[in-house]
Amino acid sequence: MKTYELGNLLKSNAYPGRGIVIGRSDDGKNAVIAYFIMGRSENSRNRIFVEDGEGIRTQAFDESKVSDPSLIIYAPVRVFGSHTIVTNGDQTDTVYDGLRAGKSFEAALKSRKYEPDDPNFTPRISGILNFVDDTFDYEMSILKSNNGDPSCCNRYTFSYDNPKIGEGRFIHTYMHDDTPLPSFEGEPEVIKISGNIDEFTGSIWEDLNFDNKVSLFVRFVDLETGKWEQRIVNKHAN
Predict the structure, then answer these.
(1) Positive or negative, the Cα torsion across 75, 96, 81, 24?
(2) Please, are residues 220 and 32 in contact by the beta-carbon 8 Å criterion?
C-alpha cells in the first residue's frame, strides 16, 4: 500500500468527518493515538473535548444550542486494563463492557452498526491498542451501510501486530464532502508519523479544514513505562 503524508490527506479533504490515527512514533518509543472531530451543522460544531478519568469525553460548548445530543455526546477514549479504546461514538462503552465480559474487540462490536443518521448512515469507526510488556498491537474497525443501503451492515476489522516505527494507520468516516456524505472505503490508510507530541498535534490541527474542524485529541504512550502524555485542542477554546 502507498504511504501518505497525513497532512496531505487532511489538506486535500475538506470534510473527512471524524478520524482515528494509531501507530508508533518515529523514535520507536511511543504508541501514538489521535482522534479528531469535525462538523458542518451548528449542533455538531458546538462541542469540545474534556478529560474524563483515563480518557476523554465530548461536551457541549454552549448548552443552550444543543438540539440533539444523541450522536454528539459520548466518550471517545476509555482505558480498560492494558487496553486503550478509541471510537467515534458511544460504541466506546460497548467495547469497554465487552472486554469486561471477556469478549474480543470484534465480538463486542457485533451488537452495533452504522449510525442512524439517514441519509448518511455515518460509519462507526473504532480502534483498540493492546499493550503487552514493552510493545503493543492494535486493531481498527469500521461498521458501514452497504453502499448507502441500510438493510445491510458491512463489518470490517483490521489487525496490526509489531507496529512499524514511524508508521500508522488512518481511518475516517467520509471519503469527502458531499450530500449525502460518502462512507470511507478500503483499508485504513498508511501514514507517516513524525515529530514529538506537540509537533504531531500542531501539524494535524493546522492541516484540518479551518471551517469544519472542532476538536483534536493526541496521546503518546511510553512503551517502556506505560505512562502517557496527551494534548487536547478545542476550536471553541482557542
Answers:
(1) negative
(2) yes
Query: Which residues have C-beta within 8 Å of that of residue 51, sequence separation ≥ 6?
Result: 232
| Cα distance from N-terminal residue to C-terminal residue, the chain | 37
**How many Å apart are CA 82 and CA 215, to the nearest integer?**
26
What is the tens place of the pLDDT at every residue in 162-194?
999 999 999 999 999 999 999 999 999 999 999
Domain boundaries, the chain: 3-237
Q: Which phi and psi (to 5°) does residue 7 adopt?
A: -60, -40
Residue 20 belongs to what H/E stretch?
A: strand 19-24
Separation of alpha carbons 18 and 11, rounded Å: 14
pTM over 0.90: yes
Say how far apart CA 117 and CA 86 lie, in whole Å.
21
CATH 3.60.20.20 fits 3-237, yes or no: yes
Distance CA 23, CA 28 (A): 10
Distance CA 173, CA 126 (A): 10
User: Can you tell me the distance from the alpha carbon of 57 to that of 76, in angstroms, rounded to the nearest whole number?
Assistant: 6
Residue 118's H or E segment, with its range, is: none
Q: Does pLDDT of 238 surpass 70? A: no
List C-alpha distances in Å: 153 to 19, 58, 146. Answer: 20, 26, 6
Least Cα distance to 47 among 74, 21, 20 occurs for: 74
DSSP letter string, 170-231: EEESBSSS-SSPPBP-SSPEEEE--S-HHHHHHHHHHHS-TTTEEEEEEEEEETTT--EEEE
